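Q: Convert this sequence to structure tokens.
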Amino acid sequence: MFRLAKIVTKITEVAHWVGAALMAAAAGCCAFAPQWLGYFVGIDLTEDKMELSIYGWGVTVAVSDGNIDKTTFCLFALGAVIVFVLMALVFRNLYLIIKKSEGVTPFQAENVCRLERMGAFAISIPMVSVCLGILLSGLRPLEVHSSGDSFLMGILVLCLTQVFARGVELEKEVDGLL
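A:
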């Protein structure tokens, strides 16, 4: 079971790093060669508007004459890079928790720190989304939406952190008795 969990978390982490790199490349393509964006990202620019979204955060972008609004797309891509990096870090910490807990107790001080970081990263995702949504709404009249799912996940992880911290304390007490 640990082996499968390690494999899945590592693959998911790498996929998020690749996603971050591809979104950074898409932003560069939009900024320097916008005519290639439709080929690079695989989007249909024949509609009058387009929905861009990632992890519950999205924006509806205007398309005119087969061209997407470059500023909006670049800012969305920047937000997507940040979200992908944050999620890659969440999965990196999860991988390390699984790896370091293999064959030993998971109640380790390092795992408490990792869980705290995971919670902070997860809570940061909707904050990034809201900040970029406000920025985008101020620049252009467009539709922005956001979901609080990762905020709730972050709160749950931070609660789990307290359980792990108590487990570390109990482990120390038991070790002191022996």
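The two ends are 31 Å apart (CA to CA).
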